[in-house]
Amino acid sequence: MWIKWAGKLLLWGGAGMGMSLVMVGLAFHFGWTGYGLLVFILLYIACFAASYGPVTWVVISEIFPIKMRGVAMSVATFALWVAVYVVTQTFPILLESAGPAATFWVFCGMSLLAFFFVWSQVPETKGKTLEEIERAW
Asked: What is the CATH number of the domain that holds 60?
């Protein structure tokens, strides 16, 4: 039911990011090194670069009503950068205290939460005018 409204690109990218993080965690857990680990990290980067990296900016510029778009985009952008800061600051702490496998699995869990949020809450905006998107809300 919700899948028709979900941002398909965010869903595919989020699923790819989550699977990549599981595999990076497994690689660290079992001591796999070399090209296999590199491939999983590069896959994560590719999935992010094709989905959450650019699409987040498009979504926040489209989903807010025209009357409040400027303020809402400012708040959303601030929240986005706060989240980036939190990830940047917690990564080394988690890495040292929990180890690399658990660290990547924690972030995989966050990817899973993001996947379900997008699946249930983010509307598909492809092919719609800003006015149509505003009416849909």
From this structure: 1.20.1250.20
Distance from C-alpha of 87 to C-alpha of 65, rounded to nearest angstrom: 29
In the block, tokens 């985009």 appear at 73
State how many domains the chain has.
1
Which range marks the domain in which residue 11 is found? 2-136
Confidence (pTM) = 0.84
φ and ψ at 99, to 5 degrees? 95, 165
Alpha helices in 31-68 (DSSP H): 35-50, 52-62
> What does the alpha-carbon distance between residue 12 and residue 52 come to, in Å, rounded to a whole number?
10
Q: Examine the pLDDT at 76 and tell me if it is beyond 50.
A: yes
